[in-house]
Every structure is written in structure tokens, then in C-alpha cells.
């Protein structure tokens, strides 16, 4: 027994796509029209979201392509017209299939009417876009565009492109870029130290001779005559009291 129709076995993404496929094409076209209003200039994020919406709702490719072509023809702003042409180019190159066939039906009128309505600055961008279509459309279709615009006019815009300064490629937008060998660098020579003058040997300071000590002269003796010491005569009053107080008891008793 197959369980492919069991909603429990469906992943959230498959359920979402199934819900979108069940919607009528008119509802899908209305939603795309609302989202298309956000594209007012060359915004890569908005263009990428609209391209994914067109890819996920390819069943409404006729309605979505009609909205894109109508936006291009009715745009009064050169910036908005160029941004919508970039959206058409993104859908052709990234989704292809039914969109490529639908856009090819009126590509000559869509491209040429835009080329004739803008100035040279936008024409330079349109000619660059035209040069990338050689692998996506038949050569006969591209020749019709060249015949309508004129070889002289397209050659004039081509000369303006040559005068533009080279643009640095953006790594996020470049898908195919040939790898170039790294630039050869000259081997670095060792750094030479500046030559210093030869250092002269340090001269030791000459020691000065120390003065020799002079011999000390003997000290002169004191020439004064030493007087002989005289004996100390004690007066009777200065004699010790012990002699006076001899036999105190006999002196008091008479």
C-alpha cells in the first residue's frame, strides 16, 4: 500500500508547494504583482526573490511574464525600466523553460522600445545585456534587434563602452572567472646593516702618582719641670670623726 498521498508523510516544503500549486493562476499573478512593486531600482535582493517566486510558480509563467513585460513598457523611470529588464534576464537565465519561450515571442519589441526610450547611460547597460544573450536566444532573433536599432547606433554605444574605465569584478556576482597565476614577486634581498666606523680601543685613564706620605716628626716632650707632689696636710678639723669620738662613754661620765 502506497503512503505517498498520506499528509503525515509529506514534508513541510512539499506541503507548501502543493498548496501553491492548488491556487489558481490569477491569485499567483496578483501576489507577484504586489511583490513587483518593490522593484524600483536595480536591487539584487528583490530581483532574486522575484526570480525564485517565478520558478516556484512556473505553472503561472504566462501570467508572470505578462506582468513583467507590461511593467517594462509602462515604466516612465529609466532606472525602474532597467531593473525590470534585469528581472526578465534573471528569469530567462536561471529558470528558462516556459519563460524563455514566452519572453522570446516579443523580445524584439520589448528590448528595442526600451533602448529607444532611454539615454546613453542606460543604453550602455542594455547593450551589455544584449551581448550576453548569444547563448540563450537564436542568432536570427538577435539580428532582428540589431536591424531595428541600426548597426551605426549599436556601434556608437559600443565605442562608449570602450571608453569606460575597467570595473573591478565583484566576487559575489562573478560565476565564472579564470584563475590567474599569482603575480611574481622579486626575491627579497637581505637587509644590509649600515657600516659603522671601526671603534678605537678604549684608552685606560692614566693614573696620577699618589703623593708619598711625609715622615712624622716625633712629638716634642713637655718641657715644663714636673713639680714634686707635696704631702697633704690635714687640719685637725678635717680629721675623721672617728678619732674625735673615741671612747665617748668615758668622756660623758666624770
Quickly describe the structure.
This protein is mostly helical. It has helices at 12-22, 25-36, 44-56, 61-74, 78-94, 98-105, 107-117, 120-131, 139-149, 151-163, 241-244, 248-252. The chain has a domain at 12-163: Serine Threonine Protein Phosphatase 5, Tetratricopeptide repeat.
Entry keywords:
254 residues, mainly alpha, Serine Threonine Protein Phosphatase 5, Tetratricopeptide repeat, disordered C terminus
CATH class category of the domain at 12-163:
Mainly Alpha
Approximately how much helix is present in the residues? 40-55%
The radius of gyration is 59 Å
Label the structural class: mainly alpha
Q: What is the CATH architecture term of the domain at 12-163?
A: Alpha Horseshoe
C-alpha termini separation: 170 Å
The CATH topology assignment of the domain at 12-163 is Serine Threonine Protein Phosphatase 5, Tetratricopeptide repeat
Strand residue percentage:
under 5%
Q: How would a textbook summarize the main sheet? A: none
Shape label? elongated
Individual helix count: 12
What is the ordering of alpha helices and beta strands?
Answer: HHHHHHHHHHHH
**Number of DSSP strand runs:** 0
Mean pLDDT: 77
Low-confidence stretches: 1-19, 172-182, 236-254
Amino acid at each position: 500500500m502506497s503512503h505517498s498521498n498520506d499528509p503525515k508523510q509529506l514534508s513541510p516544503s512539499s506541503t507548501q508547494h502543493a498548496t501553491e500549486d492548488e491556487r489558481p493562476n490569477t491569485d499567483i499573478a496578483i501576489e507577484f504583482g504586489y511583490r513587483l512593486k518593490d522593484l524600483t531600482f536595480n536591487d539584487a535582493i528583490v530581483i532574486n526573490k522575484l526570480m525564485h517566486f517565478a520558478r516556484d510558480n512556473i505553472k503561472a509563467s504566462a501570467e508572470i511574464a505578462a506582468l513583467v513585460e507590461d511593467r517594462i513598457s509602462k515604466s516612465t523611470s529609466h532606472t525602474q525600466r532597467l531593473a525590470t529588464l534585469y528581472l526578465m534576464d534573471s528569469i530567462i537565465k536561471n529558470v528558462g523553460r516556459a519563460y524563455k519561450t514566452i519572453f522570446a515571442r516579443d523580445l524584439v519589441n520589448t528590448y528595442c522600445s526600451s533602448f529607444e526610450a532611454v539615454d546613453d547611460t542606460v543604453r550602455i547597460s542594455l547593450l551589455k545585456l544584449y551581448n550576453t544573450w548569444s547563448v540563450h536566444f537564436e542568432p536570427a532573433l538577435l539580428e532582428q534587434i540589431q536591424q531595428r536599432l541600426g548597426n551605426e547606433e549599436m556601434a556608437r554605444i559600443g565605442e562608449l563602452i570602450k571608453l569606460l574605465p575597467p570595473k573591478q569584478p565583484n566576487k559575489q556576482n562573478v560565476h565564472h572567472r579564470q584563475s590567474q597565476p599569482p603575480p611574481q614577486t622579486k626575491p627579497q634581498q637581505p637587509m644590509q646593516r649600515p657600516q659603522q666606523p671601526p671603534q678605537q680601543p678604549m684608552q685606560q685613564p692614566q693614573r696620577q702618582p699618589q703623593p708619598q706620605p711625609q715622615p712624622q716628626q716625633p712629638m716634642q716632650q713637655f718641657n715644663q719641670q714636673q713639680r714634686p707632689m707635696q704631702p697633704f696636710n690635714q687640719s685637725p678639723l678635717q680629721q675623721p670623726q672617728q678619732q674625735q669620738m673615741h671612747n665617748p662613754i668615758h668622756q660623758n661620765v666624770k
